[in-house]
Amino acid sequence: MADKAEQILAGLGGADNIVEIEPCITRLRCEVEDSGLVDEKLLKAAGAHGVMRSGSVVQVVVGPEADTIASDIEDLL
Amino acid sequence: MTLRVASPVAGRVVPLTDVPDPVFSQAMVGPGVAVEPDRVAGDVVSPVDGTIVTLHPHAFVVATEDGAAVLVHLGIDTVQRKGEGFTLHVVKGEAVRAGQPVVTWDPAEVEAAGFAPICPVVALDATPDVLLDQAAPGPVSAGDALFSWQR
Q1: Which of A48, A50, A55, A74 has its CA 20 to 30 A from that of B21?
Q2: Tell me: the pLDDT tens digits for B64-116?
Q3: Which CATH superfamily is domain A2-76 in?
Q4: Which of A30, A63, A13, A40 is nearest to B126 (CA)?
Q5: What's the farthest any 2 CA atoms get from each other in chain B?
Q6: Higher-scoring residue by pLDDT: A68, B142
Q7: Other C-beta atoms within 10 Å of B109: how many?
Q8: Phi first, then psi: what are they for B18, rounded to 5°?
Q9: Residues of chain A contacting B, Cβ within 8 Å
Q10: Mutation choice for B interface testing from A20, A21, A24, A49 by most B CBs within 10 A
Q11: What does the domain layout of chain B look like in residue ranges?
Q12: Is 0.85 exceeded by the ipTM?
């Protein structure tokens, strides 16, 4: 699981790119500094079911383990 | 065996594809149905017997003894309400029975705040072929069967 968090963090452009990350049942809602650094392929390779973007907010659909992944990512920040 | 999944709210059954959120409409986290809730304040009840494994004010997951997990999401993007207007009656880890009140909310208030109050009910990580006897679009009461989940 921690590896998955690392991969997702990399897909989001790394710890420095994260402004805020919040789990919501099925997805991670992330505000990023630079959405150009977000790598959808990497996120999907990490197990994301889907990626939705809206400006600086990126939603990574990871399924019901979102809460666990978010806390793992918080540990990496 | 099949698991009877009950409607958590009273309202109108609609296809999951009607939900204005691709996570649900594209069944990214599993198949299910949605309920367009009646615009009156009331209790949201557990769809199955099980344990509350995830609990937010605006959404919860109940897992049965054999591991079937049912997600109930109260409105779309309602995480942004930060709990306002949602009163929880259970804690994470609590055992619940189907039909037991989990949270009280007011769909009209959610709608007035600018959010779609539609409630997706999802069989997490299931494949579409194991959802049987899906309720036809139309009126539904809380506790009425929405679908059977073949296990």
Answers
A1: A74
A2: 999 999 999 999 999 889 999 999 999 999 999 999 999 999 999 999 999 99
A3: Glucose permease domain IIB (3.30.1360.60)
A4: A63
A5: 42
A6: B142
A7: 16
A8: -80, -10
A9: 22, 24-27, 29, 49-50, 52, 59, 61, 63-64, 67
A10: A24
A11: 2-150
A12: no
Give the domain ranges of chain A.
2-76
Chain B hits for A59, CB-CB cut-off 8 Å, are 23
B→A interface, C-beta within 8 Å? 22-23, 26, 28-29, 54, 56, 59, 61, 69, 71, 73, 79, 124-125
**Dihedral class, residue A16 (left if φ above 0, else alpha if ψ from -120 to 50, else beta):** alpha
Q: What is the mean pLDDT of residues A25-45?
A: 94
Residue of A nearest to B21 (CA): A52
CATH 2.70.70.10 corresponds to the domain B2-150? yes
